[in-house]
């Protein structure tokens, strides 16, 4: 039912071709091999709760012992990696954890999302809100009204259901197995929430994964169509969702139609998704 978790890192493939004959992508033009090597070590150690010996790191990364030794010594000196008391095993320190909490991830995500959401509301003439998982349901962490003055909005700080909203279904559909099970275990029904069977929920989430977004009539408000896209992390799990509660005007004003609004919202979510190689959250 949940999204398939990413495959573990394997060894780097070898190539006998000289560097100048290897085809490079746009990203490869700006490679920094030493930096890549250090990041590879950090990512490898992040998957090893008990650490690895230098020989094990060399084997996993398929590099020479001397270059791994030099990089490990620099990471130890900068306190990103620590050695155990006997000195034969390396593990991540808490420095990355401390750095991350100097700028809370949710605050950074909101700061990056607000200008993109504002641009969306101006083009779409609709309101927009961002939802994140929080203690069993969905927390509306950011919200911007339509500048046109005509819109339907969900207030920032509101909590909406995990099992009966577009945001909740996207967060569940794009969760790895462990997080998916945790979210369901922590879920508590909110006021007005309509019960759903396990089979019905599984069918909805399968449909969401196939389509990649949600577009359907609101289960809470008559006349509103919820359009929602996931903001994806590098492992293809949902960090958050962007949702437009679309309302159609019936006077003489001609604004963007629902198809145009959907594409504007798709672009906004893609701009915030790590899978697109754009902004780091």
TrEMBL record:
<dbReference type="GO" id="GO:0003700">
    <property type="term" value="F:DNA-binding transcription factor activity"/>
</dbReference>
<dbReference type="InterPro" id="IPR036388">
    <property type="entry name" value="WH-like_DNA-bd_sf"/>
</dbReference>
<dbReference type="Pfam" id="PF01614">
    <property type="entry name" value="IclR_C"/>
</dbReference>
<dbReference type="Pfam" id="PF09339">
    <property type="entry name" value="HTH_IclR"/>
</dbReference>
<keyword id="KW-0804">Transcription</keyword>
<dbReference type="GO" id="GO:0045892">
    <property type="term" value="P:negative regulation of DNA-templated transcription"/>
</dbReference>
<feature type="domain" description="IclR-ED">
    <location>
        <begin position="95"/>
        <end position="278"/>
    </location>
</feature>
<dbReference type="GO" id="GO:0003677">
    <property type="term" value="F:DNA binding"/>
</dbReference>
<feature type="domain" description="HTH iclR-type">
    <location>
        <begin position="32"/>
        <end position="94"/>
    </location>
</feature>
<feature type="region of interest" description="Disordered">
    <location>
        <begin position="1"/>
        <end position="27"/>
    </location>
</feature>
<dbReference type="InterPro" id="IPR005471">
    <property type="entry name" value="Tscrpt_reg_IclR_N"/>
</dbReference>
<dbReference type="InterPro" id="IPR029016">
    <property type="entry name" value="GAF-like_dom_sf"/>
</dbReference>
<keyword id="KW-0238">DNA-binding</keyword>
<dbReference type="InterPro" id="IPR036390">
    <property type="entry name" value="WH_DNA-bd_sf"/>
</dbReference>
<dbReference type="InterPro" id="IPR014757">
    <property type="entry name" value="Tscrpt_reg_IclR_C"/>
</dbReference>
<dbReference type="InterPro" id="IPR050707">
    <property type="entry name" value="HTH_MetabolicPath_Reg"/>
</dbReference>
<protein>
    <submittedName>
        <fullName>IclR family transcriptional regulator</fullName>
    </submittedName>
</protein>
<keyword id="KW-0805">Transcription regulation</keyword>
